[in-house]
């Protein structure tokens, strides 16, 4: 207790490093002196350029000569037309293969920037500086990049590792509560599938206390990095991270189609985790006490989401379209305890319906209180 946090820690995510700690940005400045790029570009969205760029430039003086590229905030920027604009801009600036792109933003900017960097002149180097919680613990680690196509998520993309991902937790000061909870959902998932102590610590942490959150963010980033390192191209082990995502993706897609509030990814994953924890119990993999603790915690933290039984059918159809459910078979990652998971568990559409029905009952219960 009371130990000073390490100033810089570096972990290996296989294809790239993840640099964390109080002085992570200073390490980036040092790295730039080694990389010798012929041109420097910082890509951000309207929010990250306003809230995070000044601090980035203050701590990384070598970036002061960089050109800034700005995109609109939000998922809309993950579009091929935005890539085209950036490619064209890079070409007009005569950026060569030794140019370097710094992606300063949430998952949208690192997915978009990673893709632009991975394809411009068959690949230039990039660095990720995540500014959202989801970016720090998930999206900016692992080298997956891409954009959406015709309303379908991540349809076009490449694996392109950054040189490094530099995690600077104070950027989160300006992030809204809804986006913090969005990232927290993935951290809770990390605890549930692989680290019971992490799950307990997250449960006890106050979301607004960034000092308390810092070691938990670093633990989650390390879990994601370790999984990616062991399975860089999603051959098997990465599936452990799909817990909550099979049903979660269906609910996320359904929420976009409906006139009700569209869910953020993490919010949908929370509903997915409740349903899939319930399936874990139904399949005799998880004990009832653990299931109850998981559900109580998630229902306390996240707003209930109402949808009608008549929408079950559409949701199951959307789940079948998900590229991870090849052949229309549902293969779930389920929990075998708090902190351990089993991949490729076969689940029928009828069982999925039961799980959705169960969530609906929980919501009714909360609303009637
Ligand atoms: N590549 C991967 O492995 C991977 C993994 C998970 C998610 N993703 C992708 O990540 C995206 C979602 O990421 P996200 O939730 O970070 O969304 P986002 O990048 O849209 O960020 C959410 C919002 O917060 C704003 N923002 C970000 N940092 C801020 C800060 N410090 N202060 C103030 N505002 C800030 C952004 O401008 C945006 O409006 C999705 O497109 C998803 O597909 C990718
Ligand atoms: Zn996710």
Can you identify the CATH superfamily of the largest domain? Dehydroquinate synthase-like - alpha domain
Main beta sheet: 4 strands, parallel
Say what oligomer this is. single chain
Given the helix and strand composition, which structural class is it?
Answer: alpha/beta
CATH topology of the largest domain: Dehydroquinate synthase-like, alpha domain
Question: What coarse outline follows from CA principal-axis ratios?
Answer: globular
Based on the coordinates given, report the CATH architecture of the largest domain: Up-down Bundle
* Sequence of strands across the biggest β-sheet: 4-3-5-6
Could you give the count of β-strands?
11
- Counting structural domains, the number is 2
**Rg (CA only):** 21 Å
Query: Helical amount among residues, as a percent range?
Result: 40-55%
Alpha-carbon distance between the two ends? 40 Å
CATH class membership of the largest domain: Mainly Alpha
Average pLDDT level: 94
**Spans of at least 5 consecutive residues with low confidence:** none
Q: Give the SSE order as H and E letters.
A: EEHEHHEHEHEHEEEHHHHHHHEEH
The distinct ligands, each listed once, are:
nicotinamide-adenine-dinucleotide, zinc ion
Strand proportion: 15-25%
Discrete helix count: 14
Brief summary:
With 369 residues, this protein is α/β, with parallel strands linked by helices. Helices cover 49% and strands 17% of the residues. The protein folds into 2 domains: 9-175, Rossmann fold, CATH 3.40.50; 180-368, Dehydroquinate synthase-like, alpha domain.
């Amino acid at each position: 207790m009371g130990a000073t946090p390490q100033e810089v820690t570096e972990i290996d995510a296989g294809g790239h490093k993840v640099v964390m700690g109080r002085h992570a940005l200073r390490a980036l400045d040092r790295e730039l002196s080694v990389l010798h790029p012929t041109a420097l570009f910082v890509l951000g969205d309207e929010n990250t350029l306003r809230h995070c760029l000044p601090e980035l430039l203050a701590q990384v003086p070598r970036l002061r000569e960089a050109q800034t590229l700005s995109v609109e905030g939000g998922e809309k920027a993950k579009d091929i037309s935005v890539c085209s604009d950036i490619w064209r801009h890079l070409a007009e600036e005569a950026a060569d293969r030794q140019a370097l792109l710094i992606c300063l933003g949430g998952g949208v900017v690192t997915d978009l920037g990673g893709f632009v960097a991975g394809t411009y002149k068959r690949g230039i180097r990039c660095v990720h500086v995540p500014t959202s919680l989801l970016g720090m613990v998930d999206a900016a680690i692992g080298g997956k990049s891409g954009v959406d196509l015709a309303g379908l998520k991540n349809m076009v993309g490449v694996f392109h590792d950054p040189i490094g991902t530099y995690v600077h937790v104070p950027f989160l000061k300006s992030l809204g509560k809804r986006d913090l909870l969005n990232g927290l959902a993935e951290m809770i998932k990390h605890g549930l599938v692989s680290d019971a102590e992490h799950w307990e610590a997250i449960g006890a942490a106050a979301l607004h206390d960034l000092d308390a959150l810092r070691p938990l963010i670093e633990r989650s980033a390390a879990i994601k990095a370790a999984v990616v390192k062991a399975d860089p191209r999603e051959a098997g082990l990465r599936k452990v991270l799909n817990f909550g995502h099979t049903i979660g993706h269906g609910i996320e897609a359904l929420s976009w189609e409906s006139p009700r509030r569209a869910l953020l990814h993490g919010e949908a994953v929370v509903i997915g985790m409740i349903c899939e924890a319930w399936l874990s119990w139904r399949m005799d993999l998880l004990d009832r006490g653990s299931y109850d603790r998981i559900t109580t915690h998630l229902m306390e933290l996240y707003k209930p989401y109402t949808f009608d039984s008549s929408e079950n059918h559409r949701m199951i159809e959307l789940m079948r379209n998900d590229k991870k459910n090849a052949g229309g078979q549902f293969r779930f990652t389920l929990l075998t305890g708090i902190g351990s998971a089993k991949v490729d568990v076969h689940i029928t559409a009828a069982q999925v319906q039961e799980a959705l029905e169960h969530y609906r009952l929980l919501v009714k219960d909360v609303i009637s209180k």
